[in-house]
Write a structure and sequence with these properties.
The chain is an alpha/beta fold and 205 residues long. It contains seven helices and nine strands; from the N terminus they run βααβαβαβαβαββαββ.
Length: 205
């Protein structure tokens, strides 16, 4: 079976992207089930693009400020992504909410991560919110993107204990370790085994 085509979207350091690059490089695209065909970003000058360049991957940048409206940016992002004909899109620390045009093309096959156990603590401050709430366990979620904020169907989750001495940075670092490993496993399974979405349930054969 041919490796599935991945477009990975980044906004910052690209550590999740690097985890995917390393896993695919170690196993080989056919064994892993997928290959990265392009890396997209919403801004220039970020480490994620540097990682892509070092790996010899094509890149594109689609900045909101270069478009007259969010809808036009969303359409441009969808078109730039579609140019690489991906089977799956991976939002790897991509800090923009995609819109109707993007979801019309890639809804149900765009994978995202979140540093909490959804549906608890959605939004931009999942780690901080879990600490403030006094939760004893948090973690990370790999889910499909829909038109809400961290509301798409859950694919997999990993738990992380909250320690008494934790601050936001320390907890987030431990969550990121689990998140990278979980994302690598999930993308491989989706690519190799296929999947279906039944209501809110993601079924992987």
């Amino acid at each position: 079976m041919a490796a599935k085509r991945l477009v990975v979207l980044v906004s910052g350091s690209g550590t999740n992207l690097q985890a995917l690059i390393d896993a695919i490089g170690s196993a080989g695209p056919e064994a892993y089930g997928a290959e990265i065909v392009a890396v997209g970003a919403d801004r220039t000058g970020i480490a994620g693009l540097d990682r892509a360049a070092r790996a010899g991957l094509p890149t594109f940048v689609c900045q909101v400020r270069d478009h007259d409206s969010r809808a036009q940016w969303d359409k441009a992002l969808a078109e730039a992504t579609a140019a690489y004909e991906p089977d799956l899109v991976v939002s790897a620390g991509f800090m923009r909410i995609v819109g109707k045009e993007f979801l019309a093309r890639f809804g149900g096959r765009t994978v995202n991560t979140h540093p909490a156990l959804l549906p608890s603590f959605p939004g931009a401050h999942g780690v901080r919110d879990a600490l403030a709430y006094g939760a004893k366990v948090t973690g990370c979620t790999v889910h499909f993107v829909d038109d809400g904020v961290d509301t798409g169907p859950v694919i997999a989750q990993g738990a992380v204990e909250i320690r008494d001495e934790d601050d936001e940075d320390a907890l987030h670092e431990r969550i990121k370790e689990v998140e990278r490993e979980l994302l690598v496993k999930v993308v491989s399974r989706l690519a190799r085994d296929g999947f279906s979405i039944e209501g809110r349930k993601v079924v992987i054969p």
